[in-house]
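Why show two proteins at once? Because comparison is the fastest way to build intuition. When a single record is shown, students tend to memorize it. When two are placed side by side, the eye starts asking what differs. So, the first record is below.
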Amino acid sequence: MAQKDQRTSGTSIPNMDLAGFAEAGRKQLETLMDMQKQFFDMEEVNRHWVARAKVEADLANEFSAKLTAAHSMTDVVAACQEWMGRRMELYTEDSRRLITDGQKFMAATAQLFTSGFKGGGR
């Protein structure tokens, strides 16, 4: 009996769908690119909050300077009212931004779970 030479027998892999394999790779690449885009969106969120912390520090410095420069109780009360008014504005902006950022985070997480872990949405 002649044995079949395994070096020259069928160089193709049986039952291999190259088009399907390429499509799965393309979908995974798209998923990776979407996740990277969402990561950069989160980086923008981080930059915003760092800038917001600087605004808070600047406001505290300004308030401190006004209190130091106050010559009467009326000046102190005016500085406190101005500081508190500005803080309330910032809290309102923070609340809106926090909700928006939370929605972005949840969308990114949902995208990761629906397509990132399932191999490109398959």
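Second record. Ask yourself what differs from the first in the token line.
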Amino acid sequence: MQTLLTTLVSAAMISWVDDPQKANSLTKEEIAQGWILLFDGNTTFGWKTTGDVAVENGELVIGGGKESSIDSTTTFGTGKLRIQYRIDAEPVGNLLNNGEVVGTGNPADKGEWRSFEHAYDDGRTRTGVTVPAGGKTRLRSIAFQPTGGKQLFDGKTLEGWKEIPGKNSKFSVTPEGWMNVKNGNGDLQTTDQWDDFVYQMEIISNGDHLNSGVFYRAIPGEFWSGYEAQIRNEWVTDVKLKDGASISGSFTNKGDAFAVAPCTKANPEGTNWRPAGRPKTLKKDDVTEVVHHRDRPVDIGTGGIYNRQPARNVVSSDREWFTMTVVALGNHHSVWVNGYQTADFVDDAKPAASARNGRKDEKGVISLQGHDPTTDLSFRNIRIAPVPKKS
């Protein structure tokens, strides 16, 4: 099995880091190519940590007075890894793949940022680093590009997909070669099935706060039956007025006015919200400040796993193309939107035939949702890469 992290001292991979300002970010081109960030630059979300691990100035710092380690919660299949690292103190850290040591840093690199990129074409890969007591290593710009995906949409027909009959949605192929769904409710399913996989696609929502979703491990021929990676670009916004009043809720820009629909907490933590009243129209001239809270999603938010885990931030916006990456391996589920990880969920529920009723690790179809009469979304570059079972 090839490893995700090989030794960092291979001359064929190493280069100096010339532009540190680009750390922990992706270009629009990289996002469209399916790159995802494994470190967001601000938190350890998506990592299991032990010992002395901290985030400082956009850097993941590993090491200190005791042995310390990080291990990604998500396992991938084939792809490319890109990473920047700096050794601050010896002893240097061990590089891991699925818990096995596969290389070490080079003490000669101490104090210098270095980077490398490498391709992996076999097996299940999980990245990790362990630093012995007394050592310290810094990481940033940890990015991965899944590869080997099979295209599920040819841009011309709906071959390979099957619509559940008797519903209201209309699925079609646009002149641009995009898959489109209008109206709802509806459900368009793949004819093939998968259990463990990396799934990626590009999406655009052609309206305000439209509701849709990507179902997976769904039951063939059964309506809205799988796990659902939510699509809904909606969050809570605070609006302050010149008269000193303020209003919070779901925000819509109406050109010369704003509409704000009140929302209430859907959970005690305030990480999920729900609409709670009719929108109020505000003239722009009466508004002094608008503060968006993308970490307060409405109805789970794009990139959340419906009825399981809200998106920790809604990073996508209506009328703009965005990418979604879904990784499902056993009972672990991860979602990225525009390369930013929005969900990291372990399903500990009792097994059930349908993911709507409990945990489902077995294979199922991928399906796209038409939700209601306002539905109008397009999809393109739809692809999936199966991840092999553990040997």
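One difference worth noting in the second protein: The radius of gyration is 22 Å.
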